[in-house]
Amino acid sequence: MPHADGGSLWSSLSAAGHLSERTLWGADASVTLGDLVGGSSLSGRLELLRGRSVLVATRDQLTAALALIELDAVARRLVLCPPDLPAEHLPFVAAAATVDALVSDRATPDAGPPGVGTVMTCTPRIASAAPERTGRYQTEWVLLTSGTTGRPKMVVHTLSSLSGAMRGGRPSGEPAVWSTFYDIRRYGGLQIFLRALLGGGSMVLSSADESTGDFLIRAGGHGVTHISGTPSHWRRALMSPAAHRIAPRYVRLSGEIADQAILDHLRVCYPEARIAHAFASTEAGVAFDVGDGLAGFPASLIGREGADVQMKVENGSLRIRSTRTAARYLGGEGGPIADGDGFVDTGDMLERRGDRYHFVGRRGGIINVGGLKVHPEEVEAVINAHPQVRMSLVRTRKNPITGALVVADVVLKSEPGPANGRAVTLEHEIMQRCREALSRHKVPAAIHFVSALAVTPGGKLVRHDA
Predict the structure, then answer these.
(1) What ranges do the domains of the chain cover?
(2) Strands 446-449 and 403-412, how do they pair?
(3) For the whole model, what pTM was predicted?
(4) Residue 213, class by beta-carbon neighbours within 10 Å (0-12 exposed, 13-18 middle, 19+ buried)?
(5) How many angstroms separate the CA atoms of 262 and 391, rounded?
């Protein structure tokens, strides 16, 4: 599809200016945007990918970032392959997206999926070239997200829908140095990557091979000013002594419910930073962010006529309509993204408390206790408010009478120590908080103290039944 206005990611970041001062730092290499003015990460062979459906399947985030910059408006379609995609799903992804070219960062790329005729290597060693980056296509950006059949859903965006929540141009004052715990091949990380580029800043890219502490040390060394992650990312970061190696001006949370405890912990750790939590989904796009330091969001955001993002609550679920919504799914799974009125049902459940709405959990994640509903996230928010708790996971345990019981795995800020009664005391205190704040069926039947909780590659708690 010819690009409507001739714009591209490359032209937009060039318009923001100061390319030689702006850097993308990977774990093992770095590239200034100025390096790309007269060079290419694709060995000067950009023309071979023009008009193609390109699978970007690199191991390293830096090479993925370079490929995206060079290929927007050049390729017909960019398929962002997260590094943890199971190999058995690759043929489905390639077929559904009609992939006919592969970009890899391996020195000797393996053969691509069936039907892929062009395999090209991307490298941070910029080759001298004069690539033509004139925008001819409104490139489709295809992101992968969880599917109900085990295979990923493939969500189609454009640069316009992805960047709808951003304002271009170089901000006044000191340039921003962005970073994120997310991988940029997922929606949350891609948002931060685009904010850095379109806002005239630089970016520190994370690495799956790095520990949280090593990443924070590296980000601090590059002077990160703006940084984002899920609440689970941040809870793990605050457990690390390296949390104080960064001094951000802006801290952002998204991807999971930001309860009051994590917002307060971040305020204490980074007293000079603006703490904000945002709501977005791969399908619906960015809806809003909240910077008042409180969990939930003002009820006044619901039902605003004429707003760029319109929201309503129907059957307890948040629904969103905006130009930031993805165009469609590929691959035959998922049905239409929006309903007949253009609203996307996010599946995120809300409860109004006074003049504020609070997220209570996902519609599909409800625990059924004797016919009564329990949202795990609602219970976790109460447990996480205990001053000795770092994070928790509420899950279900089968029970022959009620069908299920609620149990909680809890990570403390420090080990409870030997059997001196402290663990028993903490368990009693947490239980008492739950009894005071929650209905009886929501109170955990058992508390288990654990040293860590599993987190998905996307930075969210791994939820499963036991």
Answers:
(1) 9-352, 366-449
(2) parallel
(3) 0.90
(4) middle
(5) 9
**β-pair type (140-145, 77-80):** parallel
Residue 65 sits at φ, ψ, to 5 deg, of: -60, -45
- Coil vs helix vs strand at 266: helix
Which are the contacts of 420, defined by CB distance < 8 A and separation ≥ 6? none
Q: Which residues contact 463 (CB under 8 A, 6 or more apart)?
A: 365, 376, 393, 395
Q: How close are the terminal C-alpha atoms of the chain, in Å?
A: 49
Q: CB of 333 within 8 A of CB of 151?
A: yes
Rg for the chain (alpha carbons), in Å? Answer: 23
Q: CA 150 to CA 156: how far, in whole Å? A: 19
pLDDT of residue 139: 95
Residue 419's pLDDT is what? 53
Q: Check: CB of residue 358 under 8 Å from CB of residue 351.
A: yes
Which of these, 31, 10, 16, lies nearest to 176 by C-alpha position? 16
Q: 346 is written with which tokens?
A: 């996010």
On whether the CB atoms of residues 195 and 366 are closer than 8 A, the answer is no
CA-CA distance, 276 to 297, in Å (whole number)? 11
Neighbours of 155 (CB within 10 A): 23
> How many Cβ atoms from other residues are within 10 Å of residue 90's Cβ?
17
Fold of the domain built from segment(s) 9-352? Rossmann fold (3.40.50)
Residue ranges, the chain, pLDDT below 50: 1-6, 168-170, 466
Q: Considering the domain 366-449 in this protein, what is its CATH number?
A: 3.30.300.30
Cα distance between residue 357 and residue 317, in whole Å: 11
| Dist. CA 54–CA 98, nearest whole Å | 9
- C-alpha distances in Å from residue 443, one per residue of 377, 382, 383, 409: 12, 10, 10, 13
Q: Give the span between the Cα atoms of 263 and 253, in whole angstroms.
A: 9
Q: Which pLDDT belongs to residue 70?
A: 93
Fold equal for 9-352 and 366-449: no
